[in-house]
Amino acid sequence: FVHYNATDEESHANSVQGKIKALEKLDKELLCPLFNYLDQQYKDNYRVVVLPDHYTLVKEGIHTTDPVPYAMFGKGINPDEVLSFSENSCFGKEIIKGVDMMDKLIFSEE
C-alpha cells in the first residue's frame, strides 16, 4: 500500500500543470521502478491495483463523491478495452465497491 498525496494537493491548489507534473513524477519515480522490479522478481506472478483514494476536482479544488478510475492488472486479470488511465477513459465503466475490489484483486480467476 502506497499513499501519494501530491496530486490531491495540486488539485486543491487548482493547478492543472502541477497535477500533471505530480502524476509524471509518480509514474517515473515509483510506478515504473516498481513494475520493473515486479517483472524481474516475479515475472507474471503478481497483481496490482492503482487508484486514487478520492476524487478531487482541479477546477473547484474540492473533493467529490464521484467514482474514481482504477487500473487492475496482473496474473489472472483479463484486460478490458480501456487504453489509458483517466477519469474520461473510465467514465461509464464498471463501478466496484472497495470491499468487492479487494475480492476481485485477491480471488479473481478470470
If you had to describe this structure to a student in words, what would you say it looks like?
The protein has four helices and four strands. It has helices at 6-12, 16-42, 87-90, 98-107, and strands at 47-50, 55-56, 63-64, 71-74. Strand 2 and strand 3 (63-64) form a beta hairpin. Helix 1 (6-12) packs antiparallel against helix 2. The protein is globular.
Label this structure with key terms.
single chain; 110 residues; alpha+beta; two-stranded antiparallel ribbon; two-stranded antiparallel sheet; 4 strands; 44% helix; globular
Furnish the topology, listing elements before pairings:
Layout: H1 6-12, H2 16-42, E1 47-50, E2 55-56, E3 63-64, E4 71-74, H3 87-90, H4 98-107
Antiparallel strand pairs: 1-4, 2-3
Q: Name the overall outline.
A: globular
* Radius of gyration from the alpha-carbon trace, in angstroms: 15 Å
Total number of helices:
4
Task: Return the string of H and E elements.
Answer: HHEEEEHH
